[in-house]
């Protein structure tokens, strides 16, 4: 039992070929075939489940591939994300600065200096700037030694830092030459300096805990300025050049910052940033105090600021340790 006639709906006996009621021919499908048909006919829920899993798998693969293309080191978006748009402490470094040894850093610095000389020799524009400056320096010093030093010559001497001591004057001339060369040869120099000057606005945001680092940077920059400039007011162009170049370096991990990081591997990035801002501001401060009489103002004020910075740093550290306890 279990089957019915398709003509009169009467129940059919098992294995019957004709209906006992109406005599109609029974054209039924064998049970085995029906079972086989049930097995081969896919369930709609099973089909939907398998399709959903396949779609999820393909979506996951495509998502992972897309994420890798966006966040990989070679992604154009990462390379074009300018450091100039971020504060120094927010810039993602491309190398491990804290693990860089001082000796290897100095070697790379000298190699970079040598390659810079080679590039200058091969660049007609930069080479022309250097030759012009050398001629001006020789001419100004010759006229000064002969007692011929009118206002135009003094202005040219100030603009090019023609006079100065043997060691400090040479370094100062190098800074002025570097600034002039970058202003002429590097089209993005002004924008980089402008971005660096924008970083100076965050000097007061470090809080009292960072004041010591700012004072230390100021003091060291004043002492360095006094070492480079022997005639103070006459060669203040050296301080202006140092200030602008240091301001540009605030948005980059320059050589000096890398040296400080190598010397103080445990120092926080924000601490070094505040120190570098003080270092930059110190050159501008020396250009202002150079109007005062005396040739050692930078040494005196620099030492006082170093002492003040050391005291403030120690007091802030002790307060922090006391609060944590």
Automatic annotation (TrEMBL):
The keyword Membrane applies. The chain crosses the membrane at residues 127-149, 161-185, 210-229, 235-251, 272-292, 298-316. Keywords: Membrane, Transmembrane, Transmembrane helix. It comes from the Bacteria. The keyword Transmembrane applies. This is Zinc-ribbon domain-containing protein. It comes from Desulfitobacterium dichloroeliminans (strain LMG P-21439 / DCA1). The lineage of its organism: Bacteria, Bacillati, Bacillota, Clostridia, Eubacteriales.
